[in-house]
Design a protein that fits this description.
2 copies of one chain form a homodimer.
Chain A lengths: L1 H20 L11 H18 L3 E5 L6 E6 L7 E7 L19 E3 L2 E3 L7 H16 L6 E7 L9 H7 L1 H4 L3 E4 L11 E6 L1 E10 L5 E2 H4 L6 H10 L22 H8 L5 H8 L12 H6 L5 E8 L8 E2 L2 E10 L5 H15 L5 E10 L2 E2 L5 H14 L4 E5 L4 H10 L2 E4 L15 E3 H21 L1
Amino acid sequence: MIKKYVEENKDRMLEELFSLIRIPSVSAQTAHKEDMVRCAERWKELLLQAGVDKAEVMPSKGNPMVYAERMVDPKAKTVLVYGHYDVMPAEPFELWKTEPFEPVIKDGHIWARGADDDKGQSFMQAKAFEYLNKHNLLKHNMKFIFEGEEEIGSGSLGPFIEEHKDLLKCDVILVSDTGIISPDVPSITTGLRGLSYWQIEVTGPDHDLHSGTFGGAVANPINVLCKLIADVTGPDGKIRIPGFYDDVEEASDEERKLVASIPFNEEEYKKSIGVKALFGEEGYSTIERTGYRPSFDVCGIWGGYTGDGAKTVIPSKAYAKISSRLVPHQDHNKISQLVVDYFNRVAPDTVTVKVEKHHGGYGYVCPIDFPAYKAAERGFETVFGKRPLPVRIGGSIPIISTFEKLLGAKSVLMGFGLESNAIHSPNENMPVDLWLKGIETIINFHLEYDKEA
Amino acid sequence: MIKKYVEENKDRMLEELFSLIRIPSVSAQTAHKEDMVRCAERWKELLLQAGVDKAEVMPSKGNPMVYAERMVDPKAKTVLVYGHYDVMPAEPFELWKTEPFEPVIKDGHIWARGADDDKGQSFMQAKAFEYLNKHNLLKHNMKFIFEGEEEIGSGSLGPFIEEHKDLLKCDVILVSDTGIISPDVPSITTGLRGLSYWQIEVTGPDHDLHSGTFGGAVANPINVLCKLIADVTGPDGKIRIPGFYDDVEEASDEERKLVASIPFNEEEYKKSIGVKALFGEEGYSTIERTGYRPSFDVCGIWGGYTGDGAKTVIPSKAYAKISSRLVPHQDHNKISQLVVDYFNRVAPDTVTVKVEKHHGGYGYVCPIDFPAYKAAERGFETVFGKRPLPVRIGGSIPIISTFEKLLGAKSVLMGFGLESNAIHSPNENMPVDLWLKGIETIINFHLEYDKEA
């Protein structure tokens, strides 16, 4: 019945999606300021058509927010759907085979900017809701919040949530803005890493020195900086700063088993980044290293003479930018301070070391025994015929941890993107059958969620 | 008698020197191209006046050379005097209290560009020769070679020597282009360090990676570079590259005792460069570390994001420029290759390390039991009343080792400059009494040299 509905309504639903895609809501380009408002207004209309009780375009300190709700029972649970209506710039235009803002269906794919990220995906959520609402199957309340600044850092969303905590109150947040491994290997993103970032400045002599006159008698700040950095990581790939791993949660045996079954071709992986050998923490697989374990990477380093040829100098200063990806339950504030204290403690008295904390961000994890996760899992199983694998991705989506912090609710990251969908690139696309399967899967999530709740 | 002569001829000798100084022979500035030739011609006249048999302005691939000789006995020893007639630019002019190219005597000092470096000093050599020649005291032959490119790297001198080995044949080279510790603590420069210079490039992935997606699974080339550099120097300040010290000559007990008597105020030294503590190889004093021991300094390092704020990236590449000051008898070619081999050997297979040799230079040492050194020592003792201290300076004067290599002759660095003479800076100067003492000391050197020879 679900399958039949989506098949029968396919053309209408696609035409509705296309009306969103045709508005070039590029948040990074001020020329599209008015398109942002038009796109938000269009979303409002589409949500009303889908059956919400009310929908509003609400002001924020940046681009407007689209809020909508369908309250079936004040005492029932509430699912909040989050998505974003802004898209990445389409440049370089000349690499597109079709017009980026004029969606085309060809070879079974929708071709357009936003076909996946995130108009295509977030519209699946609206259409799943439409089905449930139309067929009186909704046993829980639903809210929608769509922002227009995700591609430029979600700067207005945090303050907006802070200001509208009651309005956005919910039991779980549902997000379709991530991907699956493949249609044959469905997966759910269960974790995102947090982040700490530092800048370190090492000062030796108070002015650059002649490396002949002074070389050998004075600590060189670059040499010292290299030593400070090198000492952090052991030959076993472990971070040797005392206390660094204290709050790192080890994955359960069940989860490690599932992770081990994620298809991974090391040769392909190495080839794709052009390295001869991988390096990481001993005792963990590559997937675990990026998803379940913290990292310590120098993102930038500079000091002394960096021009052509040779200049013999002992520079006064050397700098590095360093970041750690953090995992549950590492607190970025605690880790940031831990590292500052560590460098100050081990700095030799031959130099002055100044460590400055930059921004940080919380990681996120959705336990695989969390009821809403179980509902998502069964939703996938019903439609894809396979239990989805839990995947923790190495990057950060700071807004997910902001939701958890401000609303006290976990997110379930039910995304349906494929790597070949080319988000952020020319020729972004979405297979139509996958898009329809996504709608079906989300419908099943809601049905399963009511059983769990 | 010597003292009387220099006192009586002081005004004339100064006026002759001034005629050289008034020609602005700035080798770094092409506007002074003709001044270089005029200055060389003037030197020729002055040398002929001083009593040489012949003097010539000879072409080189750059500025002309001035060559002169006084052959008293083909079977006798020959002393070759080396100096340079070019000077540093006088800019910034506004900081000069007098005109840089119009010498003035004030407060007992000559004030002018070149008053010390090297017109003032090399002219002492000419006037010492004049005395000896006029009084029939010269028992050995004398040759003079003055170049016009010392301040821009002596690029033409090497090929000139190569081409005129017979003409420049000598037993010892005498150079007045260095300094003494103070008039109360006379000293002779006995050593210069050699140099090796490398650029190292570490390549990890073949393109920059997202530090979230890949952090923890891939060797970061900056982290690796830091480790490669940090591992070279031990906590005892020793360079841990196998074989690095193999050819380093240890100073004799006698020399170490003399070195220990060189006045050195550690607090003043630290204050002058703005450090809280010094660092260097265990078991050696600061003076020994810069004069008698090799160094390993990173002169520049760069890689990844170095702009404002934070960017989370694992860069594809990281670079460093590294130099070692070398001491006798370290061969810079051998050491350069040793370090290249070392880095290639210890590089982990997670990255590609490319080490490129830049230029290198030989060090120089004048043993303190070398006859000509002894003559210089006694020359100083006679005039200054104290045995001069041997001082090895940390920097390099490549031409001195070139002389040794091409002519097979040692140099005696009998310089008379003071730090307060401000060479290369505005208000360069030379105390007149020190200038006269220098002439006397050189005369005594020649007299002592004949006893030694």
